Amino acid sequence: MSLKDLLIKNKHAILEKWFDIALGVYAEQGQTFFKKQKDRFANPVGHTTSEGIESIYDELLKETESDKLPLFLENIMKIRAVQDFSASDALSFIPGLKRIIREQLGSILLQKEIAEEWAAFESKVDRLALLGFDAYTNSRQRLFDSRVNEVRTRAARLLKMAGIGYDIPVEEKGVKNGKADNA
Q1: Which DSSP category does 1 fall into?
Q2: How far apart are the first and last CA of the chain?
Q3: What distance in Å separates the CA atoms of residue 95 and residue 125, rounded to the nearest whole number?
């Protein structure tokens, strides 16, 4: 039996434990709610996290890396960025997957036929962590950009109401979106 077959066979147990780890950054009361409430509208955090980790798991089982993996991660990271988690808390569930699989499969992972596949799978999870960090920082950046634009809009509105009539430039010469233009 291959590692992929073992991971498919143990999928439900692994995902259940992984979901618990993903919710571990929330208060106990929140964790209970996220686990019990299955309605996607009443519980968008639990629903998105549950669907996201299952989709990520399925993608990790594929032979080749998929373009969908960053999208599934992004959905989870958007929520965690808005909730103002630190990067380490937002991403803490990703390395937990390797620990869960080690606990679930134990010494089977040391068998010669499986060990090579396990090493490749661990590399995929490590890559997932890097993609997760990218998704989290991109989500945080979009959130901060949105906040800055809101402050700019409010300031311009206040200045206009005060009769000053000054429009805050969106783009200054040589600076675009807060970054120096090297061209």
Answers
A1: -
A2: 57
A3: 7
Whether the CB-CB separation of 25 and 92 falls below 8 Å is answered with yes
Specify the pTM: 0.80
Give CA 146 to chain center in angstroms: 19
Phi, psi dihedral angles at 180 (to 5 degrees)? -65, 135
How is 89-111 classified by DSSP, letter by letter? HHHTHHHHHHHHHHHHHGGGGGS
The two three-digit tokens of residue 174, written as one number: 């040589």
| Separation of alpha carbons 90 and 177, rounded Å | 26
Q: What is the DSSP letter of 175?
A: E
Residue positions counted in the chain: 183
In 28-111, where does DSSP find H-type helix?
A: 28-36, 44-60, 68-82, 87-91, 93-105
Q: Which residues contact 59 (CB under 8 A, 6 or more apart)?
A: 66, 68, 69, 72
Tokens of 79: 């929520």
Which residues are bridge partners to 180 per DSSP? 175
pLDDT in tens, 84-142: 899 999 999 999 999 999 999 998 999 988 999 999 999 999 999 999 999 999 999 99
Asked if the model's pLDDT at residue 6 lies above 90, the reply is yes
Is the separation of the CB atoms in 53 and 93 below 8 Å?
A: yes
DSSP bridge partners of 179: 176
Find the helix or strand (DSSP H, E) in which 66 lies.
Answer: none
